[in-house]
Amino acid sequence: MSTPTVDVHAHVLLPEVEALVAGLPGHGEAKALDARRNGPAALAVNGPMVRERVPRLTDPTVRLAAMDAQGVDVQLVSPSPSHYHYWADEETARKVYLLANESTAAHCRAAPDRLRGLGLVPLQHPDLAVHALDHALEQGLAGVEISSHAPGRELSDPAYEDLWARAEETGALLFLHPFGCTLDERLDRWYLSNTVGQPVENAVAVSHLIFSGVLDRYPGLKVIAAHGGGYLPTHIGRSDHAWSARSDAGAGCAHLPSSYLKRLYFDSLVHDPHVLRELVRAAGADRVLLGSDFPFDMGTEDPVGALRAARLPRTDFDAVRGGNAAALLSLE
C-alpha cells in the first residue's frame, strides 16, 4: 500500500468557543489588540475571506471533498489560532480548552480514518497546561496546538517544564503556530502582521526552545513548527556563530543551534520551492511535513504541487508528502 498524503497544517473553526467567550471581561481588549496589530485594511479583507471559507472550516463533508480535490488523504486538524484566548482567566481558560478539545474531536470523528485532531492548552496558565494536554489525549486527539508565547511568558519559561515533560512522556504532538506578533503597529499595513509577523514569531519561539536547553532536557519532544519554522532554518548560521563566539549565547544549550533543527519538525508551507529545498537541507528530509494552512488565503490550494515544485529526490518527496507524518501519527 502506498504512503498516504498527510497535511499537518489544517484548521477547524469552532463557533461554540467564540460564543462561550463573547462579552467576557478581557475579550474586547484582546480583539482591539488584534485589530490594532493587523490594521483596518487587513481586517476589511479578513472578514469576507473567513466567511467564504466557513463551510470548509466547519463541515466535515465539505472538508473531505476539498481534501479529495487536493489529493490529500489525511489532515491533522487544529483549531483556528483565533481560539487561543490567552487573555482568559483560569475558569474561562478551562472552559475554552474543554470545549475546544471536545469540539475538535467531534469534528474528526466524522471521518476518523481521514481526520486527526489537535487540542488547545492555556499557555497563560501553566498550572492548567498538563491537565489540558491530558484532556486532549483522552479525547483521542494527537496532541495540542500552542502559540509562540503567552502574555509575559516565552516558551523557555521554567513554568512550562511540566508540560514538556508530559508531552515527551505521552508522545503527544505540539504544533507551534503563532497568533499575533508583538511588533504590533509596526506591521499594521500591507498585511505585514502575517507576512513578516508569523515568520518572526516562529523564529523567536523556536530559538527559545533551542537556546534555553528545552530540547536538551526533553529530547523526545515532538514539536512541529508551522510556516517552515519561519526565518530561523534559513538563517540558522547566525545563531551558530553567536553560540560559538559569545559566552552568553552559548550558555543555555549543549550543541550548535543548527543541530537542533534535526530534533524538530517543520511544515512545508514556505511559498517558495528554493526555500523549501533549503529547509529540507537544513533539517533533513525526515523532519519536514506537508502543510497547507487549509483553508485560509495565506495557505496553498495545492500543497502537493507546491512540494513537487521543489524537485526533491523521490524518496525525500514521498517522506515529506506523507511518510514522515504517517509515522508520527501511527497511521496504518
Over all CA atoms, what is the radius of gyration? 19 Å
| Structural class by helix and strand composition | alpha/beta
> What is the CATH architecture annotation?
Alpha-Beta Barrel
SSE succession: EHHHHEHEEHEEEHEHHHEHEHEHH
| Main pleated sheet | 6 strands, parallel
Mean pLDDT: 97
- How large a portion of the residues is in β-strands, by DSSP E? 5-15%
CATH class: Alpha Beta
Number of domains: 1
- What's the total count of β strands? 11
Helical residue percent? 40-55%
Shape call = globular
The fold-level CATH name is: TIM Barrel
Number of helices: 14
InterPro entries: ACMSD (IPR032465), Amidohydro-rel (IPR006680), Metal_Hydrolase (IPR032466)
Domain Amidohydrolase-related: 6-330
Protein name: Amidohydrolase family protein
Keywords: Lyase
